[in-house]
Amino acid sequence: MSTPLSDPLIIAGKTYRSRLLVGTGKYKDLDETARAIAASGAEIVTIAVRRTNIGQNRDEPNILDVLPPERYTILPNTAGCYDVETAVRTCRLARELLDGHNLVKLEVLGDEKTLFPNVLETLKAAEILVKDGFAVMVYTNDDPVVARELEAIGCVAVMPLAAPIGSGLGIRNPLNILTIVENAKVPILVDAGVGTASHAAQAMELGCDGVLMNTAIAAAKHPVLMASAMRKAVEAGREAFLAGRMPPRRFASASSPLEGLFF
Amino acid sequence: MSTPLSDPLIIAGKTYRSRLLVGTGKYKDLDETARAIAASGAEIVTIAVRRTNIGQNRDEPNILDVLPPERYTILPNTAGCYDVETAVRTCRLARELLDGHNLVKLEVLGDEKTLFPNVLETLKAAEILVKDGFAVMVYTNDDPVVARELEAIGCVAVMPLAAPIGSGLGIRNPLNILTIVENAKVPILVDAGVGTASHAAQAMELGCDGVLMNTAIAAAKHPVLMASAMRKAVEAGREAFLAGRMPPRRFASASSPLEGLFF
Amino acid sequence: MSTPLSDPLIIAGKTYRSRLLVGTGKYKDLDETARAIAASGAEIVTIAVRRTNIGQNRDEPNILDVLPPERYTILPNTAGCYDVETAVRTCRLARELLDGHNLVKLEVLGDEKTLFPNVLETLKAAEILVKDGFAVMVYTNDDPVVARELEAIGCVAVMPLAAPIGSGLGIRNPLNILTIVENAKVPILVDAGVGTASHAAQAMELGCDGVLMNTAIAAAKHPVLMASAMRKAVEAGREAFLAGRMPPRRFASASSPLEGLFF
Amino acid sequence: MSTPLSDPLIIAGKTYRSRLLVGTGKYKDLDETARAIAASGAEIVTIAVRRTNIGQNRDEPNILDVLPPERYTILPNTAGCYDVETAVRTCRLARELLDGHNLVKLEVLGDEKTLFPNVLETLKAAEILVKDGFAVMVYTNDDPVVARELEAIGCVAVMPLAAPIGSGLGIRNPLNILTIVENAKVPILVDAGVGTASHAAQAMELGCDGVLMNTAIAAAKHPVLMASAMRKAVEAGREAFLAGRMPPRRFASASSPLEGLFF
Q1: Which of A226, D38, D53, D218 shows the greatest Cβ crowding within 10 Å of its Cβ?
Q2: Which positions of B are catalytic?
Q3: Residues β-bridged to residue B136
Q4: Which of B254, B232, C158 is nearest to A113 (CA)?
Q5: Which Gene Ontology cellular-component terms appear in the entry (chains A, B, C, D) (predicted)?
Q6: How would residue D5 be classed by pLDDT, with cut points 50, 70 and 90?
Q7: Interface residue of A20, A251, A263 to substitute, partner B, most B CBs within 10 Å
């Protein structure tokens, strides 16, 4: 029924069956982290290098012990970075700790209240990282022009927010996401703002190539069950996109177009 | 990961694993009908008795040949009925043709343009059918007071519309559906108006016990794939409901409640 | 600039310049009531007969002292009635107290939690009142079939809710209101659920003939200023409706229709 | 009733009664332009210098003949500019033609399809213009971090889009607009995307200081009447904002908060 093999997600030349990417923050403990991530079916797991031990502290538990890089593609991210230099340095540290692994998720935040990206600093950092040989997946706002610039710089995936990080509000501006998808040649993944399963399905129905989330799973009452829900929601949304939904109309009758209406 | 066995849908005393109910109209041919229904995982299939042969015409193909009652719970419906008498007569005909099977879906329509129910006639017909021994699942508008009346009459499930039949617009008034769910002791299933997978997931996230659809699957470009999408979406939405989603808030920070905002 | 004289609201044969109808509940005192209603420009003021003294209690202050029937069309309503008999009796009492004045607003509520109408009881009461010579303006849900029935019975205006009474949520289902307007020959006025000025404007843009509100004005921090806001919003919405808005489209370019999109 | 004098809009030190700013494009002829602008009550009128004659062509009709600078504050804009240099040059040309008048509206567009701003080029151009002594009102996307940067550079007003220019879709992301308003010390005016009166009212209810529009008036069937509608809508929205709307809630009862719900 499912179509993972015939419809893979390809990022930086590597093929994935799952279109759900997850983070590792906010879980009760490492055991819950591992079980939720397993239930999500995710193959790419993003890790906040500034908050999580991937080898910086030799004497403390290493998250890679429960998320072995043989099984998961580790995606180090720059969460908590507010300027170009810190973000670039964080990516280089991650590459070193991960033996040359060059896939990163870049985020350069604009302020602590909204956690919106600073797109200017993001563009500068992306340019430096691409030139330095990184495969850059990049968190951005939902502005189609900014997304196009990030693609032009050479980012391997563009990741617009659905809503503010950690808000759970769902896709605030579906038309912007749709425009970004229509314009893009690289994968577009919604990153940040998803709160429940239907949000993830909607992102995929808009044509996104994947969804990245953390709080929506980790802050649910039952994270492992929510991880399973998200796995199915992403698959459902992808299949609905590929299946080609019926056009919406006011009524079943042939003569009930929606043109000119927009509520 | 999934929880079908521990979380069954119970209608009229019978237990179901699937919470997706489907119709049989608008498919290309009977083969596509059968394949799509199989892909949906549905265990309850609704059939418009006035439009579909379940034995009325002995010489024509019988839909029960591809939907054997041993495998599927057949749910005869009164689509196309605009008054109490026709609706009641249609249910009695179905019971006769199906050897005393007394589960029916009642719909009494109000007009041909909107296909909205006529709730007055629906209430009258429901009362007659319940007294006559039918187990009545009933299509209605999204008015919480009407839903409560239908439950009080003895209907075994109440099925508010998400949007007009065949519109594919999704849930027009989620707060009304939520209120109906909160007030109910019988199963609440969204019936009519779902257009794509995220709509089905949202219905389940609101706490509905199931979703019934036909056009959303049959009128997709690839109905079998859409049927699979809907199966996963209903499961995703149910699991998300059970998992207990994170509360929405404007920002990740603790001090960003949404109270008083409502966009 | 405005067009009140050339574009009157006509209810039960009487002509009004203002399309904003207001209630009298929840104000700090009678003085604030009078000032807010004056600022609203309303010509029709609805009064809850079961809660407000219009002469039942000879020794107490009479609201008609600050809302003289020479200046305002008094619209007695049946707020707080949950059955046919009480509603009908309340209307007859009002007619007696108001010397034969036969314009009433009928509401028969379904429950105390939602304050949704009980449309069955409403239809029965409406039938009795119309036969008894009343000019009935009737509060109802947003079901187009129920609205049509109420018009068929002989109600002089049909008043669907935007959202639950006192909620301030705005128009929950604009497509239903639009359908009611399209089908109607009598005036359609949105009643209940408006919370702020843009809601009132939107109701008028959908083609409604007027808006009735109470809490949105009385429960604002500054009721008199909100009354002025609502007056302008209703005029703005009416003028925008008459002016014929530009069609929405995704982009300014000619080739950006919205057909098939519906967020 | 109204509060124009006690609640002025102040931009670059000058005081205005009207909070509605309008453009001059897309009208049938100059007479219609003049009548619509008069009906709008606007005191600030924006003119696309690259498309409209304000003196560049001595032998052709000059729009300032129908919009005398003694009566209107002329706001030259850089519509049609896609790079820093053209935008800056256009502003300087306008200043020259208008005898040193230094108030401009800067827009640097990102592409012809969406007409979204290019925020990077916009920031660069804004910086140059501010240093060159211009009072810059600036068109931008609805990103709160970009808005804050534009304010930090010294722009006198920040003008986020509601939706793409010429789309008439209304405010796509009210929470973003609200965040921009909350963070700002300079006036925030919604620019682009308003389609009808309720949209303008909503912008003001969010706390915006004003609204700028062109197509919504000029492309209405009756532009002069729509101009009047918009005038009233902006006043209505402003008054509603100042009046302090009732909090939305699910039901009138005290125990029906909306927290945790977000449809």
Answers
A1: A226
A2: 105
A3: B104
A4: B254
A5: cytoplasm
A6: low
A7: A251
DSSP secondary structure, B87-136, as one string: HHHHHHHHHHHTTT--EEEE--BS-TTT--B-HHHHHHHHHHHHHTT-EE
Q: How many CA atoms lie within 13 A of D134 on its CB side?
A: 31
CA-based angle C30:C36:C42, to the nearest 5? 115
Residue A220 is encoded by which pair of tokens?
A: 């649910």
Task: Name the average pLDDT for chain A.
Answer: 93
Residue A207 belongs to a domain: yes
Q: Tens digit of pLDDT for each residue in D187-220?
A: 999 999 999 999 999 999 999 999 999 999 999 9
pLDDT digits (tens, 9 = 90+) for C137-153: 999 999 999 999 999 99
CB contact under 8 A, D248 and B260: yes
Residues in chain A: 263
Burial (CB < 10 A; 0-12, 13-18, 19+), residue D101, is: middle
Q: What percent of chain D has pLDDT over 70?
A: 94
pLDDT value of residue A5: 53
- Of C172, B218, D119, nearest to A120 by C-alpha is D119
Alpha helices in chain B (DSSP H): 30-40, 84-97, 119-131, 144-153, 174-183, 197-205, 215-218, 223-243
Residue range D87-105: mean pLDDT, rounded: 96
| Mean pLDDT value across residues D58-78 | 92
Q: Which chains touch C (3 or more CB pairs under 8 A)?
A: A, B, D
Q: Which of A118, A141, A144 sits opposite D114 (nearest CB)?
A: A144
**Closest residue to C257, CB basis, from A178, A247, A259:** A259
Compare CB distances from A262 to C179, C258, C260 and report the shortest one's residue.
C258
Report the domain count for chain B. 1
Cβ–Cβ below 8 Å for B167 and A252: yes
Burial C43-73 (b: 16+ CB within 10 A, else e): bbbbbbbbebbbbeeeeeebbbebbeeeebb
- List the CATH number of the domain containing B122: 3.20.20.70
What is the reported pTM? Answer: 0.94
Would you tell me which residues 52-111 of chain D have a C-beta closer than 8 angstroms to some C-beta of chain C?
none
- Please give the distance of CA D92 from its chain centroid, rounded to a whole number: 21
In a domain, B41, yes or no: yes
Which pLDDT does position B5 carry in this prediction? 53
Report DSSP letters for A129-147, one per residue: HHHTT-EEEEEE-S-HHHH
Using an 8 Å Cβ cutoff, are B132 and B94 in contact? Answer: no
N-terminal to C-terminal alpha carbon distance within chain B:
35
Q: What are phi and psi of B216, to 5 degrees?
A: -55, -35
Q: How far apart are alpha carbons B259 and A87 in whole angstroms? A: 35
Domain range for residue B190? Answer: 13-243
pLDDT range class, residue C241, cuts 50, 70, 90: very high
**pLDDT for residue B120 is more than 80:** yes
Give the SS3 label for residue B82: coil
Assigned domain for A251 exists: no
Cβ–Cβ below 8 Å for A248 and B195: yes
Q: Tell me how far apart the alpha carbons of residues D116 and D147 are, in angstroms, rounded to a whole number.
A: 14
- The pLDDT, as a whole number, for residue A241 is 98
| A70 in any annotated domain | yes
Q: Is B236 helix (H, G, I), strand (E, B) or coil?
A: helix
